[in-house]
Every structure is written in structure tokens, then in C-alpha cells.
Write a structure and sequence with these properties.
The structure holds two protein chains of two kinds. Chain A is α+β, with helices and mostly antiparallel strands. In chain A, 63% of the residues lie in helices and 12% in strands. Chain B folds into two domains: 36 residues; 108 residues, OB fold (Dihydrolipoamide Acetyltransferase, E2P), CATH 2.40.50. Chain B has three helices and seven strands; from the N terminus they run αβαββββββα. Chain B has a five-stranded mixed beta barrel with strand order 2-4-5-7-6. The longest helix of chain B is centred in the first third of the chain and has 34 residues. Chains A and B meet through helix 14, strand 1, helix 15, strand 2 and strand 8 of A and helix 1, strand 1 and helix 3 of B. Strand 1 of chain A pairs antiparallel with strand 1 of chain B.
């Protein structure tokens, strides 16, 4: 009964969304105050309807109602509660419902927080959000209905992809979607601005925090996904340039560019048309990502059930929203008043280069991701574009971006003076060269390791130097602290995010340059020595989990300090879906991770295949990404970024 | 200089920088794609193709029943077939979780002079119901495809 109610509420939400699209559009056309005013109420209502609809599906999962087809296919009565709930979005239908839930949530948030926005602008934003919601809800109802019942339910459910039974992955899709869908808000704002024909400070003040919100969630979402891949897939890798990963990475690149261009738009009232274009492109990448993941046009290590009709529908949505947005842009953008001027050597100039680099990076990732589709269409042969392509293209593009990133915050707006900059660059350069060379001399390492370390130190030195200049290097302790406390939070946010990038680069560089792989059969009682760590294979035991049973290996680890640890890599078997998985055991530390994977038993007695990876500094990758997200949050908490700050009631 | 001129100059320099960035990336793409494109073949495609010996490619098909042989240490051999033709695959290393006889598989590696496929990577999917699209298509070509209902 509850499921039917959920289905009904979703259908109701569809008609409300259509209303939310039409009413303000008509209201703006005829300048009807009451029509525009009532849009907000519709936005709240459709959020509440979708929320209850979603809750009914969650309820079906928690109570293991296997008469619902989706629950029967994707859940199991023995699954832990957390994974029963995360199972709601662990499949196509449910994840789309989550998408729509977040979309309507953002619409409601815009409606509540936007009370002080010009009514016309707010109405048009909500109208656009309504159109997106209507498109996606009808997609759910007509091609991927999660509320379908089956008539002969089985008692247990068919389980759920056991490899997805992981905490990091359980919360990965909500974060990713909060980011994806957050970009729908900036998209709607851009469309509204183009329709109104005016991009003013109010508009920019609104777009920047929304971009930040989306960017922060997207960053965390991607980090969670890569963290999961590292811990679960058993290769010790953390990024594979897989189409599905690229699907989330392209919107991130576009959002990063948008984040930086909106600073220029806010501070200097210029680059507005470009910012609008980027917002449209960023959301298009989100739709493209949804298309890639859901249509299965590309082979991926993340296998999702895919269906051509669904792919076609999303492709149509993609073409409609991207094409519509771009066409509107082409028609209206020339009429936008362009703002103030600046010299190439200025903060704006540096940010423009940042934007060009990030846009090019997104374009090259897009090319590599879609290339197999083109080749298949042209001469019907199957190719895959591997990591070598992405590494060869992406890394060289990022090098100038990082070099620029260290000192562009030091440049003044409008026009910077070359002499001041050169002095600072030389100071940072000497410092960086010294640090990077020192490490390479002590530990040895390749040219690419040197490059990575150089970039990281360059960024850290530059950022710290810039901070010191801001608070005054030679000032007394008192004025120093006084100035440091008076700096806006957004300044700290930027510095922390940039340091986060450097920490990430250190993690990525060191973990690949100094990684040690051991892949070999190990006999019971055998000792292995990796660096200064001694591993002893103690034995194998059978263990039982809630919905699996496993062979559990036991390893004793003795560090050079004498500290002892035990590691338990497992090979699990899930009877519900007849799947074997290996659960790597990882000893994570600040300076190194030890990663042990148990393979199959070999013919020789007491011998098992093992993979052991020693990766120094690998945790810095996620630590760096989290610093980036924290920088974003700190920036968001800045007074002047609070939504609606400084706007008078209109 | 009047404002319009400065403006034009600003736009030109932006365009110019953009152009440089894009042409550099274009160049990078071209130089990268030569060895980073990996082509996919079914065992049938491989018949009479001498020119791909020694090149990194991907092959895919079904793992023939009872064909998995454990050789010394962790080296294994198995046969990948698409209903018409087959190829012997040799692989050293750990197998993915879902590697099983009768299942679809994609192997990455080279063909040696004895026409044995030396795999350095085995990709089996993380879902027991999932068939890699390339494998499905290769099976469809040879008429071995049994349709959606029979995948499991």
C-alpha cells in the first residue's frame, strides 16, 4: 500500500513540476505578481511529495518488502541495515529517484533563500528547475519505475552486488548527486539571466555560493568513489580513468573553472558571458555523465544494468537542455553588457588562463571518454582509450595551471606590476627547487617524481608566501595576529584549498614513484620483508559474516619500531548472488599504507596467492582532496557569501 | 589608445591564449593516441591476422568449460571462445573475483609467435549478470548469443 502511495505521490509531483515550469513562465509573460509569487509554494510542495515518495521506497527496503521488484532484485533480508538503506540508490531506478529528490530539495532551498531576489529572476529560475524536474520524473515513471510490484515474490531477495557493500560507497552517490544536481541551480540561474537579459551583481552573488556548494559536494563525492575503488577493487590503485569516473570528473573540471570565473564576475564585473556559458556546460557534463553511466554505451569496470531505451531518453534530455541552453546563449549573450577592462598581467588575466586550462582539460577528457563511441560509429571496431592517453594529456595541462596557481593570488586586480612579481617568483622558485632536490637526492627518484614534488612545493611555498604578504611579513607579532584574524574566511578558504591540491599532488606522486608491489605465492609461516616492515603469514581460518562466509588470512606485521599489528585479508563468498570477492586488508598510516590481498589457494599445500602493495603517502591523496573541500566550506561560511547577504528586499 | 582598442586587444589576447592551450592539447592528444588506443577483437576476428602479433590488444569471449588449467606457481591457461573460433590464453597473476568458466571475459595483452595470447590483465565484471557489450556483440555475430534471459 505504501509503495502505491509513493508511486502516486511521484506522479503528482510530475504534474506539480509541470505547473512549476508553466506558471512562472506565464506569470513573467503577463507580469502577474500573484502567479510568480505562488511558484515558491509549488516548489516546496513538489519537494515534500518527492520526499515522501522516496521515503516509501526506503521503507520498502528496510522492511525487505520483496513484492516490490526493485527490492527483490537488489536487496536481501540478511543485509545489514545501513546497506539496506544504501541499496535504495545502489541501482538505476532508485538512484534516479534520489537525483530528483535532491533536485526538488535544491529548488525548495532556492525558493526559501531567494525571497529577496528580484521576483522575475526567482520565478524564471524555479521555472527552469521545474522543467528539469518534470523531465526527470517522467523519465523515472515511464522508463525506470522503482515502484513496480512482482506477483511471486521470493523469500530472500536476490542480494545485491556485494562489492558495493561498503560504507564509502554507501554515501558516495548522495554526495555525488548533491554536486551534480547543485550545478542544475547554476544552470537555471544562467538560463534565467539570459531570459531577463541582465547579469548584475545580485546574480553573481547568488551563483558563486551555489557553485561552491556543488563543487564541495562533487569533490567529496569523487574522493569517496576513489577511496572505495582503492579499498575494494584490490589493485591498490585509486583512479583508473574509467568512463564512469570521467563522467564525474568532467563536471568537476567545469565546476572548478566556473568557481574561478565567478570570482572575476563578482569582483570585477566582467567575464559574465563566459561564466554563464560555463554554467551551461557544467550542467551538460552532469547530464552527459548520467547518460554515460546509465546507457552502458561505454565499457566500464563499474557495471550497471543498462538499457538502450533509457540511454536514448537521457540522450534526448541531454540534447534538449544543452542545445536549448547553448542556443539561448548564442541568441542572448551578445546583448549582455560587458564590464570592466583588465590587462593580461593581472588577477583576472591569471584566472582567465586558469579557465582556459580547465576547459581544455575537460575537453580532452571528454574526447578520450567518447572516442570509442566515435570509432565504433565510424568503422565499427572496438577500441578503448587507456590511462596512457589521459596521463599524457592531462598532466601536462595541469602543470601550467599549478605553476600559475601559486602566484596568481599575489597579482593585483586590473593590472599587476611585473617587477614585484618577479622578485616573489624567484624567492619561491629557489625555495621550491631546494626542497624538491633535497628529497630526490636523499631518496632517489625519477624525473616525474621530481616534477610532482616541485609542483607541490611550489604551490605550498607560493601560498604561504602570499599569506605572509597579506598579513605583513615584517610587522610586529601583535599586528600580525590582528591582521591574520581580520582576513576574510574566503581568503583562508582559498589558501587551504590550494594547499589541499599540493597535498594531493604529494600523495599521488610519492605513492606511485616509491610504491613496492609483491605478487607471489606465500607458504604458511613464510616471512616477507617490505622496506622496514616484516610480514609473517600466520594462517587461514573460515569465518562467517551476516550474508557471506570467507577464508580469512592472518598476517602479523612487525614494524622496525617493534610495534606489532595483525592484518586479516579475506576472500568472501556471498551465497545470495554466488559471488566471490576479495577484501583487501589495509594498514593505513600517515606515511604509508600496507595493502594485502588474499588470492586463491594454490595446488601446493598451504600455499596461497598473495598481492602485497606498499604505498607511501597514499592517504595524502584523500587528505588533500578533503582539504580542498574544507577550503570550499570555509569560503562558503564567509559572511559575504551567505546567500542573500547584502541584498535589499525588492 | 581609446577604450575600444584596449577592449579589442584584451579579447585578442584571450583568444590567442585560448588558441595556444587548445592547439597544445590537440597536439598532446595526437601524440598520445598512437599507443594508448587498444583495439578489441573476438577470436574470430583474429583468424588470419598476422599483423597484430606483438601489439597490445584486447580479446573477449566466453571462458570454455573445463579449459582452465593451473600451471606452475600462479600461471594459468584457459581457452576463450566465441562459438566459432577460440584462442588459448596464458596469464600469470591473480584472477579477478568473477572469473569463472562459462563466463564472459576480456583479456588485455599480446599474441606471441605461437598464437598464444599472453594476457597481462584480465577484466571480468563485478556483476554476475553482466556481459561486456563487446563480448555480447562478438557472440551475436557468431550466433552464439543466447539472449537476455540466459545470461546468468
Amino acid at each position: 500500500m505504501i509503495i502505491e502511495l509513493g508511486h502516486f505521490l511521484l506522479a503528482l509531483a510530475l504534474s506539480l513540476s509541470i505547473f512549476q515550469f508553466l506558471l512562472p513562465a506565464v506569470g513573467v509573460k503577463f507580469n502577474s505578481y500573484s502567479m510568480m509569487k505562488s511558484t515558491s509554494i509549488i516548489a516546496y510542495m513538489s519537494f515534500i511529495l518527492v520526499l515522501f515518495s522516496f521515503a516509501s521506497l526506503v521503507y520498502a527496503y528496510i522492511t525487505s518488502d520483496f513484492s516490490v521488484s526493485l527490492v527483490a532484485k537488489n536487496s536481501h533480508s540478511l543485509k545489514p541495515l545501513l546497506y539496506k538503506i544504501s541499496g535504495v540508490w545502489g541501482n538505476h531506478e532508485g538512484s534516479l529517484l534520489l537525483w530528483v529528490l535532491i533536485l526538488t530539495f535544491y529548488s525548495a532551498a532556492v525558493a526559501i533563500l531567494g525571497r529577496r531576489l528580484p521576483l522575475k529572476l526567482l520565478s524564471l529560475v524555479l521555472s527552469c528547475q521545474g522543467l528539469i524536474a518534470a523531465a526527470f520524473i517522467s523519465f523515472i515513471l515511464f522508463t525506470s519505475n522503482p515502484f513496480v510490484r512482482i506477483f511471486f515474490p521470493n523469500a530472500e531477495g536476490e542480494g545485491f552486488n556485494p562489492i558495493l557493500q561498503d560504507f564509502g560507497l554507501a554515501i558516495h552517490p548522495p554526495f555525488l548527486y548533491l554536486g551534480y544536481v547543485g550545478l542544475s541551480v547554476t544552470f537555471s540561474f544562467s538560463i534565467a539571466a539570459l531570459l531577463v537579459g541582465k547579469v548584475d551583481t545580485i546574480w553573481v552573488k547568488w551563483v558563486r555560493p551555489w557553485t561552491l556548494i556543488a563543487w564541495v559536494f562533487l569533490t567529496i563525492g569523487i574522493a569517496l568513489g576513489s577511496w572505495w575503488a582503492y579499498r575494494e577493487l584490490g589493485w591498490g590503485g585509486w583512479w583508473f580513468w574509467d568512463p564512469v569516473e570521467n563522467a564525474s570528473f568532467m563536471p568537476w573540471l567545469a565546476a572548478t573553472a566556473l568557481l574561478h570565473s565567478s570570482i572575476v564576475a563578482e569582483k570585477r564585473d566582467t567575464l559574465k558571458a563566459w561564466t554563464i556559458l560555463l554554467a551551461i556546460i557544467a550542467f551538460s557534463f552532469c547530464l552527459l555523465g548520467t547518460f554515460i553511466v546509465r546507457s552502458g554505451v561505454l565499457v566500464s569496470v563499474h557495471a550497471f544494468a543498462s538499457d538502450p531505451s533509457r540511454g536514448l531518453y537521457i540522450l534526448l534530455l541531454l540534447v534538449f537542455f544543452t542545445g536549448g541552453g547553448l542556443a539561448l546563449f548564442a541568441k542572448r549573450a551578445p546583448y549582455l553588457k560587458s564590464g570592466s577592462l583588465f590587462k593580461p598581467l593581472s588577477r583576472e588575466g591569471a584566472l582567465v588562463i586558469n579557465n582556459i586550462i580547465f576547459a581544455s582539460a575537460a575537453a580532452t577528457v571528454l574526447l578520450g571518454t567518447l572516442y570509442p563511441i566515435f570509432i565504433d560509429a565510424i568503422n565499427n571496431s572496438k577500441v578503448s582509450v587507456g590511462p596512457p592517453y589521459f596521463e599524457a594529456v592531462f598532466i601536462p595541462l595541469m602543470v601550467p595551471a599549478i605553476l600559475l596557481c601559486a602566484f596568481s593570488p599575489m597579482l593585483s586586480w586590473k593590472r599587476a606590476i611585473m617587477d614585484n612579481i618577479i622578485e616573489r617568483i624567484i624567492a619561491v622558485f629557489i625555495c621550491t627547487l631546494f626542497l624538491a632536490s633535497l628529497i630526490i637526492i636523499i631518496y632517489g627518484g625519477s624525473a616525474s617524481a621530481f616534477l610532482g614534488l616541485f609542483l607541490a612545493f611550489w604551490l605550498i611555498c607560493g601560498t604561504l608566501y602570499e599569506f605572509l604578504i597579506k598579513v605583513g611579513v615584517k610587522s610586529s607579532f601583535k599586528t600580525f595576529t590582528q591582521r591574520a584574524l581580520n582576513l576574510p574566511r574566503s581568503a583562508y578558504g582559498m589558501s587551504i584549498a590550494h594547499i589541499g591540491v599540493a597535498v594531493f599532488i604529494i600523495g599521488a606522486t610519492v605513492s606511485s614513484a616509491w610504491r613496492i608491489d609483491i605478487e607471489k605465492p606465500i607458504i604458511l609461516g613464510e616471512k616477507i620483508i617490505v622496506k622496514d616492515i616484516e610480514l609473517t603469514f600466520k594462517g587461514i581460518k573460515k569465518v562467517e559474516g551476516p550474508n557471506w562466509n570467507a577464508d580469512r588470512g592472518e598476517f602479523e606485521i612487525i614494524k622496525s619500531s617493534g610495534a606489532k599489528y595483525l592484518l586479516y585479508p579475506e576472500r568472501r563468498f556471498y551465497p545470495a548472488s554466488e559471488v566471490n570477492t576479495s577484501e583487501p586488508a589495509i594498514m593505513s598510516g600517515i606515511f604509508s599504507d600496507l595493502y594485502v590481498v588474499l588470492g586463491e589457494s594454490l595446488q601446493e599445500e598451504d600455499s596461497y596467492a598473495f598481492r602485497i602493495y606498499y604505498s607511501p603517502f597514499i592517504s595524502w591523496i584523500w587528505f588533500g582532496i578533503m582539504l580542498m573541500a574544507m577550503g570550499g566550506i570555509l569560503s562558503l561560511s564567509d559572511r559575504k557569501h551567505r546567500l542573500g547577504y547584502g541584498l535589499k528586499k525588492v | 589608445m581609446n577604450i575600444a582598442k584596449i577592449k579589442r586587444r584584451k579579447r585578442l589576447s584571450i583568444l590567442f591564449l585560448g588558441f595556444i592551450a587548445i592547439s597544445i592539447s590537440g597536439f598532446l592528444i595526437l601524440s598520445a593516441s598512437r599507443d594508448s588506443l587498444i583495439f578489441f577483437y573476438s577470436p574470430t576476428d583474429l583468424v588470419n591476422k598476422q599483423e597484430i602479433v606483438g601489439k597490445i590488444i584486447r580479446i573477449g569471449g566466453l571462458v570454455r568449460e573445463d579449459s582452465i588449467k593451473l600451471k606452475e606457481l600462479s600461471e594459468i591457461e584457459f581457452i576463450v571462445e566465441d562459438g566459432e573460433n577460440y584462442i588459448l590464453v596464458s596469464y600469470t597473476g591473480m584472477l579477478p573475483d568473477l572469473f569463472r568458466e562459462g563466463q564472459g571475459v576480456i583479456c588485455e595483452g599480446k599474441i606471441d609467435e605461437n598464437s598464444i595470447f599472453i594476457a597481462n590483465k584480465i577484466l571480468a565484471k563485478h556483476d554476475e549478470n553482466y556481459m561486456p557489450p563487446e563480448v555480447a556483440e562478438a557472440l551475436k555475430k557468431t550466433g552464439k548469443w543466447k539472449g537476455e534471459g540466459d545470461k546468468k
